[in-house]
């Protein structure tokens, strides 16, 4: 959870083998307990211990959220694609955005960090040189960054709707927002521009 880890991974062991197990909590989390099943299993609150393999054993490590330091990120929920695995050492964050299967963080220095699903569309591949970012948003597989000069940078999934090209052509923007595959920008004249897919009249 949130980048916490355990060892060893699943695998075969010889009968009677004594196997060390350990769990390491990520920043913002604390180790709770092991819950085991099978002959030789361990259930308890010691993060590092060992089990004796007398047959199939399953061990589950649980972690709990603790008070996070200012500027740090804590994530929870479905992490099938690593979207809750906050990068170790990520600090000085003042804004976050949650996409469908990826996550973004905006740091105080105006840079952006992305993690999670990135196989098909590159939604966590933050463009090289992107800086002076004031706001971020994340959609289904698209990422947006509002730069200090009022322009928008988009990367990731385009969907055939011109999502990224439209975003990259915007100017005089003061805020951005993202839904599944629909995106919104607030102009400095207080008008709203919406683009993307409009299956249900979103745009």
Which labels suit this protein?
1 helix, single chain, 3% helix, 203 residues, elongated, three-stranded antiparallel beta sheet, mainly beta, 14 strands
Description of the molecule:
With 203 residues, the chain is mainly beta. It is built from one helix and 14 strands; from the N terminus they run βββββββββββαβββ. It has one helix at 163-168, and strands at 5-7, 18-24, 29-37, 48-52, 58-65, 93-98, 102-107, 112-116, 133-138, 142-147, 152-156, 173-178, 182-187, 192-196. The strands form five sheets. Strands 1-2-4 form a three-stranded antiparallel beta sheet, with no helix packed on it. A three-stranded antiparallel beta sheet has the order 6-7-8, with no helix packed on it. The protein is elongated and about 70 Å long. The two termini are 36 Å apart.
SSE arrangement:
Elements: E1 5-7, E2 18-24, E3 29-37, E4 48-52, E5 58-65, E6 93-98, E7 102-107, E8 112-116, E9 133-138, E10 142-147, E11 152-156, H1 163-168, E12 173-178, E13 182-187, E14 192-196
Antiparallel strand pairs: 1-2, 2-4, 3-5, 6-7, 7-8, 9-10, 10-11, 12-13, 13-14
Q: Alpha-carbon distance between the termini?
A: 36 Å
Q: How many beta-strand runs?
A: 14
The structural class is mainly beta
Q: Tell me the overall shape.
A: elongated
Order of H and E elements: EEEEEEEEEEEHEEE
Strand order of the largest sheet: 1-2-4
Mean pLDDT: 88
By DSSP (H or I, 4+ residues per run), the number of helices equals 1
Q: From the alpha-carbon coordinates, what is the Rg to the nearest angstrom?
A: 22 Å
Beta-strand percent range: 35-45%
Q: Can you summarize the main beta sheet?
A: 3 strands, antiparallel
Q: What's the helical proportion of residues?
A: under 10%
The low-pLDDT segments are: none
């Amino acid at each position: 959870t949130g980048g916490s880890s355990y060892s060893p991974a699943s695998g075969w062991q010889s009968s009677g083998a004594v196997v060390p197990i350990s769990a390491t909590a990520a920043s913002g989390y604390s180790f709770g307990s092991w819950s085991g099943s099978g002959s030789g299993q361990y259930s308890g609150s010691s993060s590092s211990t060992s089990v004796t393999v007398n047959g199939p054993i399953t061990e589950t490590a649980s972690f709990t959220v603790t008070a996070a330091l200012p500027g740090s990120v804590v994530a929870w929920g479905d992490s099938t694609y690593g979207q809750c695995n906050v990068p170790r050492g990520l600090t000085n964050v003042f804004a976050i955005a949650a996409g469908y299967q990826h996550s973004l963080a905006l740091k105080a220095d105006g840079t952006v960090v992305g993690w999670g699903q990135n196989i098909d569309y590159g939604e966590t591949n933050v463009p090289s040189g992107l800086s002076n970012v004031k706001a971020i948003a994340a959609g289904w597989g698209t990422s947006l960054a509002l730069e200090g000069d009022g322009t928008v940078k988009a990367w990731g999934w385009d969907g055939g709707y011109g999502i990224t090209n439209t975003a990259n052509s915007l100017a005089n923007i003061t805020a951005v927002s993202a839904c599944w595959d629909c995106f919104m920008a607030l102009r400095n004249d207080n008008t709203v521009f919406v683009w993307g897919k409009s299956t249900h009249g979103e745009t």
